[in-house]
Amino acid sequence: MIKASQVKELREKTGAGMMDCKKALSATDGDIEKAIDWLREKGIAKSAKKAGRIAAEGLSRVAVDGNTAVLFEVNSETDFVAKNDKFLHLLDLVQAALLSGKPADVEAALALDTPEGTINDLIINATATIGEKISFRRFQVVEKAEDEIFGAYMHKGGTISALVVLKGGDEAIAKNIAMQVASMSPVYATEKDIPAAELDHERELQKQMMDADPKMAGKPEKVLAGILNGKVKKHFKELCLADQEFFLENKKSVSQYLKEQGASVVSFVRYQVGEGIEKKEEDFAAEVAAQIKG
Prior knowledge:
The chain is α+β, with helices and mostly antiparallel strands and 294 residues long. It contains eleven helices and ten strands.
């Protein structure tokens, strides 16, 4: 009996598809190392040697089709590959499959069919033909109501992609807010969306800093409470979309702009390529020294 954990481990080591991994494990009585050899012999794991590399470049995309939108990110090892026609074609195929398939998670997305194989097949083949580790990192499918509006924006071809859903307003206003999200990277829509635990943590941190500040000594409790509230609010101002300065009119907040336009934010999503991935730091001095010694 082949376990799901074995299939997962083999997929991670080889980049091969789920069904291919199951076949390999069945053919080798569950032996991971023999299964890797089986896949390599079949030419399925030809990209496995690149599996350990760091893929932190690439592109994100946002696409809209009716009441459905999708954001996704496909990574490569270098930004040069992101301009490769084969890589861009891969993104086109992934985009169409995600919009039509609306998968629930990455595993389901990788299993989606395209005219050129599953998304997982496309990733493996792209890794082999382009010569860099290519990985399908993440995606989000967003659905809107008939009376809501999508706003989409991609910065520099997809180094950053943003999607917003507005209630009221129009497409131009929605795009402006998507550009705001892309450029100012808010975390929450409004203060109401900040988790209580995070608010409490920040309040305690600010209180500790105030207690250690000699300038605060002797101030009335009511004054100290007001200062504390102000410091906490200031900290979260840039994190909340509604409180940010509107990038087109910095004398207004985003909430003021939206109110004037009769619109409100329902939701937003922002992807920046490579965020959260630990990138390899190149030590060029050491590299040159090694070449001289060699």
